[in-house]
Write a structure and sequence with these properties.
The chain is built from three helices and two strands, in the order ββααα. Strand 1 and strand 2 form a beta hairpin.
């Protein structure tokens, strides 16, 4: 997570017992634990408060968006 000029590591812990493969993915766990629970973003495809930046653009693009004020926070996931 990139916030206020600094990168942070978020550890989400183990996936829920009995979770399917899709629910075990980092992106699903970020959605459930952070985006939905903490930020109230239910549908990442339609919520105007969130945007996707492809990995080819790199973390420097995420830093640029946050540092410029175009985004408040950025998340980067390991492939």
């Amino acid at each position: 997570m990139y916030l206020a000029g600094k990168w942070y590591t978020i550890t989400l812990g183990a996936a829920a017992s009995g979770a399917g493969r899709a629910e075990q993915l980092d992106v699903s766990r970020l959605q459930d634990s952070v985006l939905t629970q903490l930020l109230g973003i239910g549908d990442v495809r339609t919520d105007k408060r969130i945007d996707f930046v492809g990995g080819a653009r790199g973390t420097s693009e995420l830093e640029k968006l946050v540092d410029s004020g175009k985004a408040a926070v950025a998340f980067s996931l390991y492939r």
